[in-house]
UniProtKB/TrEMBL annotation:
The active site is at residues 79, 152, 485. GO terms for cellular component: apoplast. CDD domains: PA_subtilisin_like, Peptidases_S8_3. GO terms for biological process: proteolysis; response to symbiotic bacterium; response to symbiotic fungus. It is found in: Secreted, Extracellular space, Apoplast. PANTHER family: PROPROTEIN CONVERTASE SUBTILISIN/KEXIN. Required for arbuscular mycorrhiza (AM) development during AM symbiosis with AM fungi (e.g. Glomeromycota intraradices). Keywords: Apoplast, Glycoprotein, Hydrolase, Protease, Secreted, Serine protease, Signal. Residues 70-522 form the Peptidase S8/S53 domain. This is Subtilisin-like protease SBT1.3. The lineage of its organism: Eukaryota, Viridiplantae, Streptophyta, Embryophyta, Tracheophyta.
Length: 572
């Protein structure tokens, strides 16, 4: 299929199928056509962070950062849509929508005009490219409307500019007030992601509408691999948006710690990596030899282990140099006779973390210790398991296995400690955060900065369960998620605050305001560390260090790059 996207600011030809390349090339001579692209499938890169970032005094309830907003900045979010019933999207006390806004509130399955308000000022859906490749959307299984069935979009929108909500928590964890970075600003949701994928034809159409509608800041956590600037449709349409005064931020991706794992590298886009903050959900692993290890978990069911009793455990591994599928607890590899009544050690690899726990639970295991491998290092990501599961770092995992293999009578128990603040050191760069180098232009560091991305609590779509497992029938209004798609909306919201404070600034002035006010020391006054190697990391890992929103509001240096500067860069 060959088709033309005719927008207010850009005409692009998208073709699907290499056999149509000749036909698409003929269309290149049409007046107004900027470029021709093969349609590409993209992938999505999920209460404490406002306080951790200095936007809210730890004991304050007056939401002083809300006063930083002028209530006239609009943030556009390209994602899976929005769950409009969430209290994060209430518009209490907000002024009328600014007159310059030209967006729309599109309706569809389970979504009406009444779901838009002075907070959520507009919603749109884009699916023509998707349906051309995948086929018609099955409306029995998916909302063909702005409503979010995945949860990713709701989480991101709330993180950008969600209204304050008291008593937010996930099953009792992280209880407190949750809100977005810019709670006084407005949001527009553009749904481009569907069950079968998301394509650049829909993304280009959406960003063209973003510009035409009057959005000031654009968030997207989509990545489809790195290609030349002039062959990357997302890069090109983002350039167009930048020219029209829209600040664009993208997530770095979750393919770290492998080198060259970035998926967005364009210099006019702010690329955001991820790190931890000073809150965790701790569990003590108490060994039969009296030693103790610390891990994390979000388990919350009735079944718990007695801390007064020690339990036998098992680690299914062979003497072969190859990876034993039993050691990573893959479905169909474990013997229930061996697991029943025991704590099972599983290595983190291949299958989803919560799925491993469900495998162990279904075979009679009473608990699971998930051990990181070299790829994850000391990064601890908490999950809402259906079994008593604790995740520990690589080094602790090695000690644990050594103790297990040294004694046939080795035992352990798990003691859940709940939510803990003041964790040190923090921040620490997440192992999953995508890394250097920027192969297109080695001398331009990417990502630009790092922001909290691990164990973030915020609003959730009630169409999906917190663990994403079908067997889990719990519904929650909030969830705790990790990924650079959680760090990116932090930056989009902070950019909205800066834009609100300095409405005359261009996107290329807002960007250096964020970048030149960053810091590099953690809360132990040492250089930020990398969770994958437990060592100080370099600018290639974190770009220009960790964001400081308060300093960014009043920076000492702003370098306003003009579009012509970028043209000259591209020409050389």
């Amino acid at each position: 299929m060959v088709w033309k996207l005719t927008g207010k600011y850009l005409d692009v030809i998208i073709f699907q199928g290499l056999q149509l390349e000749g036909e698409a090339t003929k269309l290149k001579v049409e007046k107004g056509v900027v470029a021709i692209f093969l349609d590409t499938k993209y992938e999505l890169h999920t209460t404490r962070s406002p306080i951790f970032l200095g936007l809210e005094p730890a004991k304050s309830t007056n939401m002083w950062s809300e006063k930083l907003a002028g209530h006239d900045v609009i943030v556009g979010v390209l994602d899976t849509g929005i769950w409009p019933e969430s209290e994060s999207f209430k518009d209490v006390g907000m002024r009328p929508v600014p007159a310059y806004w030209e967006g729309a509130c599109e309706i569809g399955t389970s979504f009406t005009k009444s779901h838009c308000n002075k907070k959520v000022v507009g919603v749109r859906v884009f699916y023509h490219g998707y349906e051309a490749v995948v086929g018609r959307i099955n409306e029995q299984k998916e909302y063909k409307s702005p409503r979010d069935q995945d949860r990713h979009g709701t989480h991101a929108v709330a993180m950008v500019g969600g209204s304050p909500m008291h008593g937010a928590n996930l099953l009792g964890y992280a209880n407190g007030i949750t809100r977005g970075m810019a709670p006084g600003e407005r949001i527009a949701a553009y749904k481009v992601c569907w069950v079968g994928g998301y394509f650049n034809s829909d993304i280009v159409s959406a960003i063209d509408k973003v510009v035409a509608d009057g959005v000031n800041v654009l968030y997207t956590s989509l990545g489809g691999g790195v290609s030349s600037y002039y062959r990357d449709s997302l890069s090109m349409i983002a350039f167009e948006a930048m020219e029209r005064c829209v600040f664009v931020s993208c997530s770095a991706g979750n393919a770290g710690p492998d080198p060259a794992s970035l998926t967005n590298v364009s210099p006019w886009i702010t690329i955001v990596g991820g790190n931890t903050m000073d809150r965790d959900f701790l569990v003590d692993v108490r060994l039969g030899n009296g030693k103790k290890m610390i891990g994390v978990s979000l388990y919350k069911w009735k079944n718990v282990l007695s801390i007064e009793k020690q339990y036998p455990w098992v680690y299914m591994v062979s003497n072969s140099s190859r990876v034993d599928p039993r050691s990573i607890c893959l479905e169909g590899t474990l013997d229930p006779k061996v697991l029943s009544g025991k704590i099972v050690i599983c290595d983190r690899s291949l299958s989803p973390r919560v799925q491993k726990g469900d495998v162990v639970r279904s075979l009679g295991g009473v608990g699971m210790i998930l051990t990181n491998t070299e790829a994850n290092g000391e990064e601890l990501v908490a999950d809402s398991h259906l079994l008593l599961v604790v995740e520990i770092g690589e080094q602790e995992g090695k000690k644990l296995k050594s103790y297990l293999l040294s004694s046939k009578s080795s035992t352990a128990t798990l003691a859940f400690k709940g939510t803990r603040l003041g964790i040190k050191p923090s921040p620490v760069v997440a192992a999953f955060s995508s890394r250097r180098p920027n192969f297109l232009t080695l001398e331009i560091l990417k990502p630009n900065l790092v922001v909290p991305a691990v164990n973030i609590l915020v609003a959730w779509s009630e169409a999906i369960r917190p663990s994403s497992l079908k067997i889990n029938n719990r519904k929650v209004k909030f969830n705790i998620v990790s990924g650079t798609s959680m760090s990116c909306p932090h930056v989009s919201g902070i950019a909205a605050l800066v834009k609100s404070r300095h409405p005359e600034w261009s996107p290329t002035a807002v960007k250096p305001a964020l970048m030149t006010t960053t810091y590099v020391l953690d809360n132990t006054k040492k250089t930020l560390r990398d969770a994958s190697i437990v060592k100080p990391f370099s600018p290639y890992d974190h770009g220009l260090r960790h964001i400081d929103p308060i300093r960014a509001l009043d920076p000492s240096l702003v370098y306003d790059i003009m579009p012509q500067d970028y043209f000259e860069f591209l020409c050389t």
